[in-house]
Amino acid sequence: MIPPLRVVRRTAKPEIIAVAAPIPRLAHFIGHLIKGDPVIPVRSTLALPLLACLAAVGCTPSWSGPTPTPSPIATATSSAAGESGLDAYGGTIAIQCPAGPKAHFYTQKIGNRWWLCDPAGNAFFLRGVYDVTWTDSATLTDKVKRKYAAGINRDWQANWGLQSVRRLELWGFNTLSEYSSEYAWPGMRANWNTSDGTMPDKMPFLYYENPSLYSLTNAGNYAKAPVKDILNGVKSNIYTGYRSHIIDAFDPNFGLGLGGSLQHDWANGVAMGLHNDYFLGFDMDESDDTMGIRAGPDFETVDDVYSGQLDAGHAMPQTAWLVLVTNPMQEANHSLHVNYSNKTVFSKLAMSAYFSKEYGGKIAALNAAWGSNYTTFGTTDRGGTAAIQLGTYADFGAGHGLLDEDGSCPSRLRFHGCWVGTDSINLTGETAAMQADMSGFFSYWLDQYFGAQKTQYNLYAPGYLLTQEIGGWGAPPRREVLTEAAKYVDIFTLESVPPYLCSNCTDAQARINFTAQYGGDKPWVNWQGFIAQADSYMSAYPGGSGTAAFTTQQARGAGYQNMVNTFLNAADANGTYHIVGIEWWGMYDMITQKTNWGLLTPNDNTYDGREAIIAKGTDRWGHPTGGEKANYGDFVDSVQSANYGIYSQLIADYHSSRQTSSH
């Protein structure tokens, strides 16, 4: 069964159009629109709103300008809500990081707790919201366009961006998480009456580069050719599970595409533009397009969105197993409408070379370990491996070489069983040596996947934090993922460890310990979202299966408070507190998914018991509210209270630990 909700949710993080149009190509893109040509794939979540701004008279959004020196503000300031003791970035002036002020955000362990540190040198606990944008539906877009048409800026998008930042500050958030609109970014020039034309209220933010998805079509033409999807070459009768993407990480075009993007696309403006000291860092890749690094099999997965119960069956297949059974040659990917001039699947050839080296070039040694019957590490096709690149290869599923393997063991002797098991997750039925070899190659593949990206970030965006979404459904990823990711990323982003919510989980501590054991002494951020469908704009839709954990917004708010408490108090077996932030999915309920994800309804009303109601009124800024079909409950006041309490608890813990260590 295709996993409900979770897969739909994350793949539907709104992107207006699917792939890439870097800033230098916008004029070309606009020309096509004017001529009525079919729409070119566009990469940014805000490409069309940005084009609308470009078309407006006098609208000049950009990120051009010198890289500034951050201002290490150490004096107490207040957010729009009155949360005191914060610096300009939202860090607490009550705790200074020993490394002091720096140009950009960084991480540091202070005592037994990991922290983010802002450019002013103060401790910073990330409180972010994903998808701060209006692009989910025409209903939402039309609502905010009319609501913010009048304001201090002549562009409604800019007025909406300022209002969004002010709302988030009011609710105790301090970060624009991934998939948020450029109009809310601190360096976006959009006709503001400020010294540099940028928004008067500024908030730190994160950015997705998403190289796996965009490399599949060579978005932006930054590489020489598209990169192949391993799953595209796996037969549907061999692997019958859920499919998204697994990139051919050994294809050199993977790194080339990312490097080109970092030099020429939106990321260049983020890293090199105005107020880039507010840029927290890059989320390296979207977990929906990297399914091999999502939920592992060591712990049961959880429905932590609707029912809050264990929900088995969402662990992802082992990537090396899929490489073993994929075709070493791909001529096209019809679902993506791409053709390949070089037909080689580089990961399959890398596997052949890897095992040849491991077994000293002796195929008999591998056969003895696996119980297999290959005659070569290569292929028995008459054209050899050259036939793969040329597209004349014909021995997949028929030849007797390792490269010819399709999961049916075509080289097996008559009346003998297949050494490749049918369990793509746990690899049951395969010899212990074969399982160990699959693990070894998976680590090798992960080194290539993470390493290729890290190289490009070091070249074109050095000095910024790198994070990566791993795991899912309340379960950590495979141990190989944790170990290899730790070599390349600064922060893990998990969903979430420990899991919340899960009323029948008895192994929360074991999940924390597992992540720390294999991921090492690293900080991580938990992302989470859960719903109260019955008391929301989305009440006409079921929201999930089983019994809902929350049926009212008030109960959902209490759940948020419990989640914060759970994460703040989560320590591993050695007493280390790894969690440095929480990201909430998301800003608005999503009509496209018919789900109550939001802090706001699609009518742009806050779930606070005052705005999201039938009666019409105005908010504290004078904007219209109300007009809902029913009176919905109060979620956000509890969110605000929980967020405000985070620094209070952490500051108290900090002083307590210092007193303990001094005795």
Structure, briefly:
The protein is α/β, with parallel strands linked by helices and 663 residues long. It is built from 17 helices and 18 strands.
Radius of gyration from the alpha-carbon trace, in angstroms: 25 Å
Coarse shape: globular
Rounded mean pLDDT score: 88
Structural class: alpha/beta
Helix count, per DSSP? 17
Which strand order spans the largest sheet, edge to edge or round the barrel?
6-5-16-15-14-13-8-7
What report would you give on this structure?
Residues 1-76 have low confidence and may be disordered. A hairpin with a 5-residue loop joins strand 9 and strand 10. Helix 7 (252-264) crosses helix 8 (266-272) and helix 13 runs parallel beside helix 14 (479-485). The chain has 663 residues and is α/β, with parallel strands linked by helices. 30% of the residues lie in helices and 10% in strands. The chain has 17 helices and 18 strands.
